[in-house]
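U., I forgot to send this yesterday:
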Amino acid sequence: MAGVFATAQPRYAALGIATFPFDATAVVKRGPLVSHYNRMGLRASKQMLLRFPDAPGLAAMAGARNRFTVIDIDARGAAGERLLADVQRDFGNARVVTRTGSGGFHAFYRHNGEVRKIRPDLRRPIDLIGGGPIVLPPTRGFRGNYEIIHGRVEDLAALEPIRESTAGLAKTDIDLRSARDGGRDKKFWPHVARQAHLVKSLDELIEIAREMNDLMAEPWSDNAVESEIVKRCKYWWDKTQKGENWFGLGKYVRSTHAELDSMLANPRDQDAWLLLTLLRRHHWGREFKLANATHKSLSWTLRRFKAARKRLIESGEIIVIRRQTPKRPMECRLRVSDSAHQ
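Result:
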């Protein structure tokens, strides 16, 4: 009896999709059974029929060659079904949806320049796969078989692209394929730090980091995964639990405890603290003009604004570069404080 690859390869080849033999039946997936699978064309795919007639599965490369992109949903059961519904509402209805061997889902869209990104949308635990291997039905898996739950194999020839309003997702995050070992601090770890806000446990964060490591141009060895990745994930998980992880939250303004205690101890200084916070928000790291007319944008009286400005000048938080004249507003800069703005 022929294996899955032997029976399914011709059906995919008829659609112009070059597949290669794949083994997902072990506890730890063996993966592709051939080398250079990322360059597999239709001719080479057909030749694999003679070499691997009993292969229990098949896969194909997402991307331009086979003209499809996949939204990968790892969540299972009711949670996975809800997330699948959200994905199709936001990205567009997928003509082909498959259930993976682990119980997750793959939603197929026409490739439109997307790349492969792990967790590109900080709101949801989904992966955008515009490159790399995708296991296809009816591959047999260790936990379960890959199967189509919506559409047909033939519908892969008529996929719709990701909805235009969300297509920018493909360009908003890091491309780990270009991140070699020396670039991990700039690409890999900041992404892990952002993911720490979204996951529910340290184990989930470690699993995401391992998936990301597999996409690196120079992935770490297994031993390094169990040491450096685990150590760094613990670090960012602890920082997040303490409220000290600011990655992925956008720019922010901070005040030290001493600064707050000093400013808020006197009711008259509360205006000064609010004005200082707004100035840090809009003018950090550069010179600026602080005209009397600023009181209008704050809905303050001129007297109230002048009192707050005077307090900040006296405390050294505002440094006056040029004093105010009848024809020229005051020019200032803020006192340098590494902890005040990021």
